[in-house]
Design goal:
With 336 residues, the protein is α/β, with parallel strands linked by helices. It folds into two domains: 6-174, NAD(P)-binding Rossmann-like Domain (Rossmann fold, 3-Layer(aba) Sandwich); 178-335, N-(1-d-carboxylethyl)-l-norvaline Dehydrogenase, domain 2 (Orthogonal Bundle), CATH 1.10.1040. The protein is 45% helix and 14% strand. α3 (87-95) packs parallel to α4 (113-120) and α7 (189-196) crosses α12 (270-276). The N and C termini lie far apart (62 Å).
């Protein structure tokens, strides 16, 4: 059987990371992204970097680049990596161009993207996926993976064979809704990291910022319980225990949660990257999702709501929050 052809719709940091690895392994991949981003790749090529392996550079002549969804025609797999706010439009754009047998895989933050894609792409297989690690654009034409981890999707052996050939660790899951709810708990740190202005390892090493995350997660877990959602356990710690661990003193946290700090010194959240580049963030699909879920169950989520406001303010006028100040701000929201 010939190698499958891929298209990546939303070739930003995550999309270039996934698509670039597939290109390096010899797969036919079309990267579809913003005009400015594709112009950089056309000039510089794409460099894939991590802290544990030498960088891999793909020269411009090895890249197939496009700016419109029509370039996905003929692909066996379309990896969707656009921000959640763009999913409906992306699905509409794809609908006219995909063959009935095309498999669409959502590697996006948020809870509802696979359902949105399925509704707009009847007759196509849509798989939910999850990226557990951090990838940011460290400089133009370079995407950097800042921590280890395994991708997760619903089972598809042909897809898995391609990803493994591309040295992309991947795991089959039949509980992707629970996985996505667990990932959302982790992603609630994106806003805190963005407002801190610090690398992830430094930010998570400071108790004040971790206590901010603990407040967010407690509200999320209460909303999950009210909705009958049991998030998957993705690491050594059960989701319900994590807020307690986050509140431990720094020295104790470093001992009992060392794996949480196994992040390279340059890693930052994608939301930090968005603020730095003057782009809109995914705050509505992260903290905003918790606020919506809590409200639908007659609960409040004032800490998450306050973070939505602070990130919106930072989109308009960037500001860095010291840990003690941010925690005081969120405690006031919690107690208000």
């Amino acid at each position: 059987m010939p190698k499958p052809r891929f298209a990546v719709l939303g070739a930003g940091s995550i999309g270039c990371h996934l698509g670039g690895h597939l290109v390096a392994a010899g797969y036919d991949v079309t990267l579809i992204g913003r005009t400015a981003a594709m112009a950089v790749l056309r000039e510089r090529g794409l460099t894939l970097s991590t802290s544990v392996r030498p960088p891999v550079h793909l020269s411009p002549d090895r890249l197939t680049l496009a700016t419109g969804a029509e370039a996905a025609a003929g692909a066996d797999y379309v990896l969707v990596t656009v921000k959640s706010a763009g999913t409906e439009a992306a699905a509409r754009d794809l609908a006219a161009h995909l063959a009935p047998g095309t498999v669409v895989v959502s590697f996006q933050n948020g809870l509802h993207n696979p359902a949105t894609l399925r509704a707009a792409l009847p007759g196509r297989t849509v798989l939910a996926g999850m990226v557990p690690y951090n990838v940011v654009g460290s400089e133009p034409g370079t995407v950097h993976q800042g921590m280890p981890g395994r991708l997760m999707t619903e089972p598809d052996e042909r897809l898995f064979a391609a990803f493994r050939a591309a040295h992309l660790a991947i795991e089959a899951r039949t509980d992707m809704p629970e996985v996505q709810h667990a990932k959302l708990l982790m992603n609630l740190n994106n806003a805190i990291n963005a407002l801190s202005g610090l690398p992830l390892r430094d930010q998570l090493g400071l108790r004040a910022y971790r206590r901010c995350l603990a407040l967010c997660q407690r509200e999320a877990l209460a909303a999950y319980r009210a909705a009958g959602v049991a998030p998957a356990r993705l690491g050594p710690t059960a989701p319900g225990v994590t807020p307690y661990l986050l509140g431990l003193p720094d020295a104790v946290f470093r001992r009992v949660a060392a794996a949480s700090l196994r992040i390279d010194a340059h890693a930052r959240s994608s939301m930090w990257e968005d603020l730095q580049r003057g782009r809109s963030t995914e705050i509505d699909s992260l903290q905003g999702e918790i606020v919506a879920l809590a409200t639908a169950r007659g609960l409040r989520a004032p800490v998450n709501a306050r973070l939505v406001t602070l990130v919106r303010e930072a989109e308009a006028a960037p500001r860095t929050w010291p840990g003690a100040e941010l925690y005081a701000e969120l405690r006031a929201a919690h107690n208000g």
